[in-house]
Amino acid sequence: MPKYKLEYIWLDGYSPLANLRSKTQIKEFASFPKLEELPQWNFDGSSTRQAEGKSADCLLRPVAVYPDSTRRNGVLVMCEVLLPDGSPHPSNTRATIPDDEGTWFGFEQEFFFYKDGAPLGFPPGGYPAPQGLYYTGVGYQSIGALARELVEQHMDICLDAGLNYEGTNAEVAKGQWEFQIFGKGSKKAADEIWVARYLLSRLTERYGIDIAWECKPIRGPFNEPLDWNGSGMHANFSTAYMREVGGKAYFEQLMGAFSKYMDEHIAVYGPDNHMRLTGLHETQSIDKFTYGVADRGSSIRIPHAFVNNGYRGYLEDRRPNSAADPYLVAGRILKTVQSVPTP
Q: The GS beta-grasp domain covers which part of the protein (predicted)?
């Protein structure tokens, strides 16, 4: 039987920003393994801030499996972390998402390529031309020599893995890009965002490039944010009721719930979000909740199609930042939606 390289991927216990971890196990299978065929594994939680040395074992339970086209017989195994008794580890944010197959999420993941301490394309010790031509730009002056090559490679690897990768584009700042992932079911898109993040970070290792997931990495003296766009992870969401029934009265109740739980949302929408949600650069202030049709300066953007379809369809929460944990974002959004009664 062929031997497969199983790359087990999980999130560590660092706060406020969990890191991706992975390690390889070799196993024999008659063909590409199914999820139910993959064994649980363990790791040293004392080295990842998930256990003490005197009782260090944590368990890895596979939750999704994908082919890895960068390795012969390669397998990507997304895992959640369990305690030795099989219960969810306190760092297991995936376990906070209610199960709901009728909920769909689409995440717009922004990031910066970083090399030698600065965004890719920034001149040493200085700044490039102001923002304007970088968003969806074409040509060396806007994009540079390497960024598009990395984005294309990442896209191909994600598609080979079967991720529901929806698209990509250069973003507003120099060295800033975005990709989009969509998934049906309350956990699928979040699983795939984490796998796509892993694949991008691993791809750029060989080029000496890091990925800056931070929401406002370009800062001046005394950590002051400069006049460069921050990075978000806008969350597009819908439930079966929103798509099939909806209605203006339900929508207004829904927005009332999002306003009520504003602080709970901001708490899980990523660290340092006060630097990004300023009311500038297509954001609403962190201490306000607003919504508006096609308004990219609102907390919640309402697509024209949503209103034209009788207040049915999806909505976009623009507050989650690029470093946010998509598991926490999905869980909080769905809990708020579920707090609104339906007939």
A: 4-86
